[in-house]
Write a structure and sequence with these properties.
Elements: E1 5-10, H1 17-28, E2 32-37, H2 47-54, H3 70-77, E3 80-86, H4 88-95, H5 102-108, E4 116-120, H6 124-128, H7 130-142, E5 145-146, E6 150-153, E7 159-163, H8 167-180, E8 187-192, E9 197-198, E10 204-205, H9 212-223, E11 227-233, E12 244-248, H10 251-264, E13 269-272, E14 279-286, E15 289-292, E16 307-312, H11 320-323, E17 330-336, H12 345-352, E18 358-362, E19 367-368, E20 371-372, E21 375-378, E22 384-388, H13 390-403
Parallel strand pairs: 1-2, 1-3, 3-4, 4-5, 8-11, 8-13, 11-12, 13-17, 17-18
Antiparallel strand pairs: 6-7, 9-10, 14-15, 14-16, 18-21, 19-20, 21-22
């Protein structure tokens, strides 16, 4: 049995060939797919290719014999509709209620209890034209999900916005809509990446955290239909999808932003894996004088010796439930533990479970280069799952959070 029924609409854009990959991916993942096209779309992609991918006839004509009511029946059939690519002509017709072909007629027949997505693709000037901008704004107000466009070199040779989003990302947005539509979304906060403690305007102390694990978890939870807020270090990796992002700099900045966020919104869970500085530079001694940090000006590099004093930072993990508006919030704590310190593991576990509901350990042994590949998930002080891949870990976390609701 197929997961969902997806109607893919294709309009006249040179990016139409990318829709074949999207359709193929949907079919491979057991979705049932039907395709409707404009006449201009068939100038860029062959009808035989689309029929071969779906095993279904391509819908293209309102007045095609035997399919006179297709614009009503297909609209009723589909669980979700995606227009990819959506050219400027079609977008502006949608917004003005023009129904002069099958694709635009289907739009007027759409059941608005079901998701409708548009993935624009056009020249930057066309995208930024007041008519197109106003149309996109109107469609969004009506309940259409407008996907972002890619940025780069366009087919016409121009550089800028307007590229069709890559099919894998479009697929992620489809999953998000299907997994969240008509449901109470889980609201998840994730922290990731390194804090940066300034010494002067150009120097700082930090660590090697890339934020890739946090970004990957944000993408996973987004695809599963969750509302995701990612607090990320300024230089940390970004997720593929447009989750809510809050950037932080140093320990104090992260602490304040997490406190404000948790005390102003109800979150179901916090996944806390930011690599937070244990110490913050407090003062510096050089040339016989002591100054508070960070310095307003660049540190004089002619000094023969400098001494930096650090002050210990409190554990943000210990304050998360206290700050939270939702007192039933679930906390996932990540902890890096080197193999040679494994004798400390028992003590670390006991401390972490004082503030967290679940714990995840990562180590150098689970890394390939700078990418963490393996994790250990602890459900309690005594129960654990070892050597989990990131997707396995994400699935475990999501299931635990859902069951706790």
């Amino acid at each position: 049995m197929s997961k969902f029924k997806i109607l893919v609409k294709i309009t006249g854009s040179i990016a139409a060939y990318k829709s074949a990959y999207l359709i193929s991916k949907l079919i491979q993942d057991d979705f049932e797919v039907k395709v409707a096209v404009t006449e201009s779309a068939l100038k860029f992609i062959g009808e035989a290719s689309l029929e071969g991918l779906t095993g279904e006839p391509v819908f293209k004509d309102v007045f095609e014999p035997g399919k006179m009511m297709s614009h009503i029946n297909i609209a009723k059939w589909a669980d979700l509709t995606i227009v990819a690519p959506a050219d400027a002509n079609t977008i502006n017709k949608f917004a003005n209620g023009i129904a002069d072909n099958l694709v635009t007629s289907l739009f007027l027949a759409h059941n608005w209890s079901k998701p409708y997505l548009i993935a624009p693709a056009m020249n930057t000037a066309m995208l930024n034209h007041p008519a197109t901008r106003e149309s996109l704004k109107r469609l969004k107000k009506w309940g259409v999900k407008i996907l972002p466009t890619g940025v780069g070199k366009l087919a016409c040779g121009d550089e800028g916005e307007g590229k069709l989003l890559e099919p894998d990302r479009i697929y992620g947005y489809i999953l998000n809509e299907l997994n969240s539509h008509g449901k109470n979304k889980l609201n998840i906060a994730i922290s990731g990446g390194a804090t940066i403690e300034q010494i002067d305007k150009i120097r700082f102390i930090s660590n090697v955290s890339t934020g890739r694990t946090a970004a990957a978890l944000a993408d996973y939870f987004f695809r599963e239909g969750c509302q995701v807020t990612l607090l990320k270090g300024a230089s940390a990796a970004s997720p593929a999808f447009d989750v809510d992002i809050i950037e932080f700099q140093d320990f104090s900045d992260l602490k304040n932003k997490l406190q404000n966020l948790l005390s102003s919104q109800e979150f179901d869970a916090v996944i806390h894996l930011a690599a937070v500085s244990d110490f913050t530079p407090d003062s510096i001694e050089f040339n016989g004088s002591e100054m508070m940090l960070p310095l307003e000006n660049k540190l004089d590099s002619k000094s023969e010796e400098i001494k930096i004093k650090f002050r210990r930072n409190e554990k943000i993990l210990n304050r998360l439930k206290e700050w939270s508006l939702n007192k039933e919030i679930k906390i996932v704590a990540f902890k890096f533990l080197e193999k040679e310190h494994s004798e400390r593991k028992g003590k670390e576990i006991a401390k972490l479970f004082n503030s967290a509901d679940w714990v995840v350990f990562n180590s150098l042994e689970g890394r390939e280069g700078t990418v963490q590949k393996k994790f250990e998930f602890l459900e309690s002080k005594t129960e654990s799952k070892r050597n989990l891949e990131l997707n396995e870990l994400a699935k475990v976390l999501l299931n635990k959070i859902r069951r706790s609701k």
